[in-house]
Design goal:
This protein has 781 residues and is α/β, with parallel strands linked by helices. The chain is built from 25 helices and 13 strands. The strands form three sheets. A seven-stranded mixed β-sheet has the order 9-8-7-10-11-13-12, sandwiched between helices. It has a four-stranded antiparallel β-sheet with strand order 3-4-5-6, with helices on one face. A two-stranded antiparallel sheet has the order 1-2. A hairpin with an 8-residue loop joins strand 4 and strand 5 (539-544). The protein starts with a helix and ends in a 29-residue tail after the last helix.
């Protein structure tokens, strides 16, 4: 067993190590947004489905020696693709939606090795059962689980912080060589065993290889090498012993699809609110994998009633937290959304385990599961961006799961699901009361619960009436002793209630008129129209996700005023106004509404770098800053860092007097724009006495120590200007940092006098492309 165990463990470890590694490699090449990881997960899911299909059909259609020959060829070809470091040629001036290019890059770089690794679990179990007849192969899944979780948890905690990306890629390549060697030895054992069977075929008693039980592949959905199901495991429900029906097969797809949607939606949510970092990729994926391991280990770990109650409660908390958006504390968001993901996936995978078919159909069963995972990834990464102008996948996934519970309750005639949903409803009231008490302050959970009941007595009464009608035997005046179809009515009422809540939230989230709403690879954009009947205060506001990217008055006299983060008293306003006289060359990373163009004078030159084509379209149609600017303005599309790097390579440095980095005020910061390598590029774009202005206003992250460490590394002078004075409602409190070689610039009276005092205890490591510790700069909120 040792060669097969070692092969499965190594394959599972490499399969999960390469996911965050390759994601970190290509993240800076495509803007550093959450969409990069979502597209990566889509690739992993799709290729996983291919690997499972290959393992299933090669095992059922080919004789053992031909299987060995085919797999040996694939192993050799996978080695030919090493090293897995992506070619710099993929770093182009990309515009528009990069999904296709990311998928092509991944296919060319790691496609075949990942395909071979994804087939390892089921294929090795099949080979082991052939070479060791009578010995159960199912305990091999434990090693697969250990390898998967160890790879996921060790990457952000060990490999990412200790080794450079290139060294990690070299280590992974060495691991693949070791995997091929041990897998080759397993192939040799299968070849030798098949040859012995052929020699013995003339004997009176011929071993019936076809009678060997079908091995259980390691269940893998959304790039997870989850455990298989032992054929000898006791059935947990009568359904498990029945031949699967069409409804069962549909649920084999729908349940993992829902879990996949929730995984990607939760990851998107966390990355949008905090930062796009491997830790926030790995955390949801680890919890997802853990639920698969728990549910498929033994039936005792999943109790329908308990987890249904927890699910309904978790949905209630999510409903209460979603309207708070990014105003909710970061740690609360991480805990609530990941806990909801864990509970929902426990329900999906627990019910999936109960639907397992007889052993001879298990390979098809896991093919359906992997197909469901791929469909979920495709929906989030591709379809949702086309049909929605906002992120709706998290709500839709939870909503669909409540409907699936109704189907399961009817299909399995389950009173547990019904009463679990009822208990969950009351738990949800208590949990929502806690959320309200937490945000509103001090009245306490008891008072908030009473207030909540008083505010919604009609809806509460309707819910209680529906529950009584569904579960009470009116003749006997007691709870129904056995399942009745009308019991499902309460679960479906919960489904309807959840749907109504989500729809009401979508409709009432913004009462202001929306002039424009769009969503693409880079996020969501909305333009709001405020006070249209007030000529003096009528303005348009641009939101990117939950972050304001500028506002502009429609009145011509006021439309040229710098607003929000860019007032005259802000750090960037002071820096621009104190540049030497004469024509000025200004650079800006992040277009927004183009507010900084208000500072452009005749004879100036303004060069703006913007990666999102939708932002440029809105800035030129819904806002007038660029149109009214007196300076010459060029908007350059593409990632700012890559574009500047190309300009330097082409001997075309811009020699800016000031370069404003306005890409860090949103909640999901592009880390690659604030590393040592990035600053080297910025400094080559500046005049010797030029200034870099970094906007570090951020809800969750204290970026000041990071910029100070970069300044120290390049022996630059730095001043932090926090402008808390808000003379008008359209001027926001901001924090900008000015970095320059020109110490005299920062010693001008109006800059020196308002600069913040040093923060002696605020330290951060030097950020590089290989290492950037977001955890060390998280604020305590």
């Amino acid at each position: 067993m040792l060669p097969f165990a070692l092969t499965i463990f190594t394959g599972a470890f490499l399969l999960f190590q390469v996911q965050p590694l390759i994601g970190k490699f290509i993240l800076p090449w495509f803007g550093g947004g959450p969409g990069v990881w979502t597209t990566c997960l889509l690739f992993f899911q799709t290729l996983l489905l291919g690997g499972y299909a290959y393992a299933h059909f090669s095992s059922t259609l080919l004789k053992p020696r031909r299987q060995v020959m085919l797999h040996f060829v694939l192993l050799a070809l996978s080695l030919a693709m090493l090293p897995i470091t992506p070619s710099p040629s993929w770093k182009t001036n990309l515009q528009g939606d990069p999904n296709v290019r990311i998928l092509l890059l991944l296919m060319v770089t790691i496609g075949l090795p990942y395909f071979v690794l994804s087939s390892t679990g089921p294929l090795m179990q099949r080979w082991f059962s052939q070479t060791n007849p009578g010995v159960s192969p199912y305990r091999l899944y434990a090693l697969s689980n250990v390898g998967s979780l160890l790879a996921l948890l060790s990457y952000p905690a060990f490999f990412e912080v200790r080794f450079s990306r290139q060294f990690q890629a070299n280590l992974w390549s060495g691991g693949l060589v070791a995997f091929v060697l041990v897998c080759g030895y397993c192939a040799y054992l299968v070849w030798r065993h098949a040859k012995e069977i052929e020699r013995a075929s003339a004997a009176p008693v011929t071993p019936d290889v076809a009678a060997i039980p079908e091995p259980v592949p390691v269940a893998l959905v959304v790039g997870t090498d989850a455990p298989g199901v032992a054929a000898t495991a006791p059935a947990v429900a009568p359904v498990a012993d029945l031949a699967p029906t069409g409804v069962d097969r549909l649920l084999w797809i729908v349940l993992p699809m829902i879990a996949s949607v929730l995984l990607l939606a939760t990851t998107n949510k966390l990355c949008q609110e905090v930062a796009v970092i491997p830790f926030l990729w790995v955390l949801p994926l680890s919890l997802y994998l853990l639920t698969f391991i728990i549910c498929f280990d033994h039936a005792r770990w999943y109790h329908r009633g308990v987890f249904t109650a927890l699910l309904v409660m978790a949905i209630g908390v999510v409903c209460a937290l979603l309207p708070a958006g990014s105003d909710a504390p970061m740690r609360v968001q991480i805990i609530v959304y990941t806990a909801a993901l864990f509970i929902a996936c426990m329900v999906c995978h627990g019910e999936l385990y109960r639907l397992k078919p007889p052993p001879q159909q298990l390979t098809a069963y896991f093919l359906f599961i992997s197909a469901g995972g791929a469909l979920g990834g495709f929906f989030v990464a591709i379809v949702a961006a086309l049909i929605f102008s906002d992120y709706r996948e998290l709500q839709l996934g939870l909503w669909l799961l409540t409907y699936a519970l109704g189907v399961l309750a009817y299909r399995h005639r389950s009173r547990e699901l019904v009463f679990g949903a009822a208990a969950g409803g009351w738990l949800a009231l208590l949990a929502v009361s806690w959320v309200r008490s937490y945000f509103d302050g001090s009245e306490g959970i008891k008072t908030e619960f009473v207030n909540l009941v008083k505010e919604r007595p009609i809806y509460l009464g309707i819910g209680v009436a529906i529950l009584i009608a569904c579960v009470v035997d009116f003749r006997a005046r007691r709870l129904l002793a056995e399942f009745r179809p009308r019991m499902v009515g309460f679960v479906m009422a919960v489904c309807v209630g959840v749907g109504v809540i989500f729809i009401v939230q979508w409709r009432t989230k913004e009462t202001t008129r929306v002039l424009s709403a769009s969503r693409n690879f880079y996020g969501t954009l909305k333009v709001y129209d405020y006070y249209p009947n007030d000529e003096d205060d009528h303005y348009h506001l641009l939101l990117h996700g939950a972050t304001t990217h500028g506002l502009e008055f429609t009145k011509p006299e006021k439309s040229v005023m710098p607003t929000t983060y860019y007032g005259d008293a802000s750090g960037v306003g002071l820096a621009i106004n104190h540049l030497p006289e004469g024509s000025r060359r200004l650079g800006l990373v992040g277009l927004g509404t183009g507010t900084l163009a208000a500072y452009g004078r005749k004879g100036d030159y303004l060069r703006i770098y913007e990666i999102n084509p939708a932002v440029r379209q809105l800035a030129t149609t819904q806002f007038k800053y660029l149109e009214y600017c007196q300076a010459k303005v060029d908007v350059v599309m593409g990632d700012a860092r890559l574009t500047m790097e190309r300009e330097i390579a082409e001997k075309n440095p811009q020699r800016f007097d000031l370069l404003a980095l306005d890409a860090f005020s949103s909640d999901a910061i592009p880390v690659h724009l604030l590393t040592k390598e990035a600053f080297e590029i910025y400094l080559q774009q500046l005049k010797p006495d030029g200034v870099i202005a970094v906007h570090i206003s951020n809800r969750y992250l204290n970026l000041r120590p990071v910029v100070e460490k970069l300044a120290e590394s390049f022996k630059l002078h730095v001043a932090t200007i926090s402008d808390d004075n808000e003379p008008d409602w359209w001027i926001y409190a901001t924090t900008w940092m000015l970095v320059t070689r020109n110490k005299a610039f920062l010693e001008q009276d109006k800059i020196r006098d308002i600069a913040d005092a040093p923060e002696p205890n605020a330290k951060a490591p030097l950020w590089t492309d290989d290492f950037a510790s977001v955890y060390s700069i998280m604020k305590n909120n």
